[in-house]
Structures are given as structure tokens and as C-alpha cells.
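Table 4 source record.
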Amino acid sequence: MARQLAMVINLDKCLGCHTCTVACKNLWTSKKGREYMYWNNVESRPGPGYPRNWEVRGGGFDANGNVILGELPAQADYGEVTEYNYEKGLFNGGGIVNAEPEPSWGSNWEEDEGEGDFGENYYMYLPRLCNHCTNPACLAACTRNAIYKRQEDGIVLVDQDRCRGYRHCVQACPYKKVMFNSFKGQSEKCIFCYPRIEKGKPNACAMQCPGRIRQVGFLDDTSSDVYKLAVQHQVAIPLHPEYGTGPNVYYIPPFSGPSTVDDQGRPINIDRIPMTYLRSLFGDGVDAVIATLRAEREAVSSGGSSEILEVLNSNNRYSL
């Protein structure tokens, strides 16, 4: 029986520092043809995301289980590839390091903007990577049988010997986390750091995170925090479950309490992130998750205990 490795990301603890993105970039996407690629990125939401407006480009499965081929994002939707003139900025008296050419779009271009008027503005950080889905649309769409799931851990990989760069996988992935390397003429994607996993080390994005927001483990390992959060207590939920792919990256939705105040500066009991927006990301199941998290915090505030909160604050983040 195949096993499934999964990741849980606690959005309340994300700092928006992009250390995870830098760790992934340095390790996996620093070579030719990958300049524009961010296998891991952190988006400010609400916002267009990366690639731009990925949520409306289609993919996944229809109600009958048929794979949907969506749009191919244009290069401009990922952002221009630029270089920084360090020589001019740092060593020749310029004082400012400029990107050349000056970009007009890029990953998380609209950082920290969010939505809402002054005093009622809200935003959240959303780290994203390949979900290593249980039912990958990229795999279903590939006519070359170049995409496969490993039996030992459920990681989804692209066989570079078979891939011919047709990009059906890019169209079919509703999260747009399969990307095209024009230098090689092949599709590439997050490999869930499987060379690290095989040595018992966690993913680079999880290991380097200063906020300690990521937990990694097998869904059938009852001792792992991933199992406790996603399976036992069901407070970790996938992004856009309606796409039908069965994502195995789970999220603890943000529940940081109210930030809105009245004209006297007193907190108003309004959720920091509107529930309508959280439902648009995680589906109707997010209501039960928020209710559970609220009840757990109230129990602790009243002198009780909470296994859920203990797990979320645990240093036992990896079970490999």
C-alpha cells in the first residue's frame, strides 16, 4: 500500500519573510531555464498570486472526474527575469542597486496590500508549493506517462527521460505549480526535496523557516504531528479542495483574533480575515476548523489544556 508524505503549514505563524522561497531557489531553481521559477513562493492574499491570477486559469477535474486543461500562463504572468547591477550600485558610487531591466511584475509583486479601506485593511501570507496530490491532474493529463507518484512516499515527480515538453501538465495543474523550462524544453516542478527526505532530513523550505510554521510527516503515522492535525483533529485543510486533486499540503487557517478597533481604540470582535474570504480559499469546511480553534483557545484561557495547540507549538515538526 502506498504511503503519503504530507506537509502542514500554520498560516498564523507565517512571517512573510520569504526565507523558504530563498532556500528553495538556491537549492533547486538557480540554473538556466529556471530563472523565473519559484517552486515555493509566499503570496500576500487577497492578491493575484504567482503566476498572476492562477486561480482563474483552470485545471483540475470536472464533476465527472475528467481532467480539465486550463490556460497556459504567459511568461509575463510569472514576472520578468532581471539582473541586479551590484557593480554600479555598490562599488561605483551609485548607492542604489537597481534591477536591469526594471521589472513591472514579479512573484508577490503586490506584497502586503490585501483588501479593504484604511483601518479595515486585511491581508495574510500564503506559502505555496506543489501539493503532491493524491489524484494529480498533471499526471492524468500527461500523454507521455512522464509524471508519476512514488509508492514509498507519494511524492509526484517528472521523468525527464520521458518528458517532451507538451505542457499539458502545466495546463492541467489548477495550482499552476508545474513550470516549463524553455532551455531544456521540459516541464519541471517541486520535488518535495526527496533527496533530503531519503536521508531523513526535512524539506529545505521547512528546515529553514524561522517561524517554524511547517510540519512534515506521513499521513498514516499516528505519532506524527501531521497525522494529528490533518487526520485526527482535522484542523489542517487543503487549499481549493474543489479542484478535485486531493492536495497533500494542508493549512491551519489564520485565526489571530480581531484587529479592528472602534473610535475609542477598543478591539471589536470581528475576525481579522473575513470568513467569506477564507471560504473562497479552503471551502466551507474552514468554518468548523475556525470554530474548533476558537474553542481550544478558550479552553486554554480558562485554565484547561489543548492537544491541538500543544501540537501546533511543538518543536517535533518532522517525522520521517
